[in-house]
Amino acid sequence: MRPTKSPLQAMALYSAILSQLVGSVLIGLFTGMWLDEQFGTAPLFLIICLLTGLAIGVWAMLKTVQKFESGDN
Q1: Residue 45 class from Cβ within 10 Å (0-12 exposed, 13-18 middle, 19+ buried)?
Q2: pLDDT band at 24 (very low <50, low <70, confident <90, very high)
Q3: For residue 3, which phi and psi values (nearest 5 degrees)?
Q4: CA distance 28 to 31
Q5: What is the rounded distance in angstroms from the CA atom of residue 57 to the CA atom of residue 23?
Q6: CA-to-CA distance for 35 and 26, rounded, in angstroms?
Q7: Amino acid 69: pLDDT
Q8: Torsions phi, psi of 40, nearest 5?
Q9: Residue 5 has pLDDT above 80, yes or no
Q10: Predicted local distance difference test score (pLDDT) of residue 2
Q11: What element of type H or E holds 1?
Q12: What's the average model confidence in pLDDT over 26-37?
């Protein structure tokens, strides 16, 4: 039988997931805007960097949940 997780551990998991998703999307957003400004290619790099940031955020979220479920510290 699996030991139960405390509510504080669940809150920490939710906070980590939120910060990873929001952080990676914001970094992609601002990087894309900056690249578009530098090269005059609006909205090409914005879309590319935004989707890349979202993909990285989802990947990091999955790794975090996997680590949480396995019980590693």
Answers
A1: buried
A2: very high
A3: -70, 145
A4: 5
A5: 8
A6: 14
A7: 87
A8: 65, 40
A9: no
A10: 62
A11: none
A12: 97
Structure token digits, residue 68: 């949480």
Closest C-alpha to 67, from 26, 12, 19: 12
Q: Which residues have CB under 8 Å from 29's CB, separation 6+?
A: 46, 49, 50, 53
Contact call for residues 25 and 54 (beta carbons, < 8 A)? yes
pLDDT score for 22: 96
Give the list of residues 6+ apart from residue 26 with CB closer than 8 angstroms, or none: 53
Residues 6 or more apart whose Cβ sits within 8 Å of residue 28: 49, 50, 51, 52, 53, 54, 56
CA atoms within 13 A on the CB side of 31: 14
Query: What residue has token string 């290619």?
Result: 41
For the segment 33-51, the average pLDDT, to the nearest whole number, is 96
